[in-house]
Amino acid sequence: MNIDHAVVLGLPSARVTATVTEDCARACPSACACSSAERGCSVHCDRAGLQRVPAEFPCKAASIDLDRNGLRFLGERAFGTLPSLQRLSLRHNNLSFITPGAFKGLPRLAELRLAHNGDLRYLHARTFAALGRLRRLDLAACRLFSVPERLLAELPALRELAAFDNLFRRVPGTLRGLANLTHVQLERCRIEAVAASSLLGLRHLRSLSLQENRVRVVHGGAFRDCGVLEHLLLNDNLLAQLPPDAFQGLRRLRMLNLGGNALGRVERAWFADLAELELIYLDRNHIAFVEEGAFQNLSGLLALHLNGNHLTTLAWAAFQPGFFLGRLFLFRNPWCCDCRLQWLRDWMESLGCVADVPCASPGSVAGLDLSQVAFGRSPSGLCVDPEELNDTTSSPDPSPGPVATTVSRFSSLLSKLLAPRAPEEVVNITQGLFNASWAQGLPSHGVEGSGPEIEFFLGTSLLLSVAQHMVFVLHRD
């Protein structure tokens, strides 16, 4: 009896499924493929070569895919009346104009995809009228220069907006006041600034992507209404500095990406309100200084990326390592591995949270990793910096110094003087030395011979004396 009861209860469901299947097959457009499921009919018209929207769709259609066709225009009520339609995709077409009211007759539509319609460029303020249940809207890569202020005002249920790869120069004003919006993607849109009023009223926003734009300025308090924001991506922009209150109010922020900008320093005030931060990306900047206490309140931090900057040292006072249990990424920096980094080496040994800290200086440890540096101790127990080596002692094949060069030149000259020569050549070489004023007083008596032989002997003696004197003086210096 229980079995019979179950069968009876199951009959209405079976009849509904049969009705959906019959409708799906009967009204399926000729260029499309239709399949029925428990939730309704799915219509697949992608890559069908369509130049216009089919005149009829199954009444029970829950999803329609018209991607990668040649559609150029959507007229009023382009899809008729489809009370069950929840998803409509029109990506990768040639749409250049959408008539206001094109989506009338789709009262339950929850997801609309218009991405990659590069000729669209403009949307009327009433384009999405009557889509009161729309939750997801994809306008990516439509080459939109701007959007009307009231475009999204009639979408109270909107949660997710993808509008990346457009031509906006500022955050679209149509976002303001969308209290139910949770995810916004605006990367690669040429946006130049985030103004104090750009994000007003976005009280439920949880994820905001502004990466790969041209943002040079973030105004103080720009995110103050985004109190539940968890992910903020500002990487790969043109930021050279930030106001102290740039991230004011973001008490639930978990991930902040500032990588790939032009920041020269890290200030303590930036992260004062961000007690929930777990990931910070500050890589690929020009950072040469981290202010004391910059990370000291971030007890939940799991990873801090400071790689690819201009850091030579990092003070222990920048954060409390005892409370930092995550990973610290410091590679590709010109680290000076002196006693100021001894705390970091000790921390690396004890917790293993840091790796790859290559030393650029001092010379005696250049090329080593900080973990390999052995710091000396003075008699009083203080840390002693590794030595800075000069070029002569550190070079495996030292170049000749000034002394060796001078001796070499004198040796060359002596070789020329002592080599067998004709009398005339000897006279020419020694004549200048013999006629020198300090040699005029040399006695001529007691020396046998005369003429060129005497001049050669005296010139050679004088030159040897000068060479010996110069070598002695250079060695002494």
UniProtKB/TrEMBL annotation:
<dbReference type="Pfam" id="PF13855">
    <property type="entry name" value="LRR_8"/>
</dbReference>
<dbReference type="InterPro" id="IPR050541">
    <property type="entry name" value="LRR_TM_domain-containing"/>
</dbReference>
<dbReference type="InterPro" id="IPR001611">
    <property type="entry name" value="Leu-rich_rpt"/>
</dbReference>
<keyword id="KW-0677">Repeat</keyword>
<protein>
    <submittedName>
        <fullName>Nyctalopin</fullName>
    </submittedName>
</protein>
<dbReference type="GO" id="GO:0005886">
    <property type="term" value="C:plasma membrane"/>
</dbReference>
<keyword id="KW-0433">Leucine-rich repeat</keyword>
<dbReference type="InterPro" id="IPR003591">
    <property type="entry name" value="Leu-rich_rpt_typical-subtyp"/>
</dbReference>
<dbReference type="InterPro" id="IPR032675">
    <property type="entry name" value="LRR_dom_sf"/>
</dbReference>
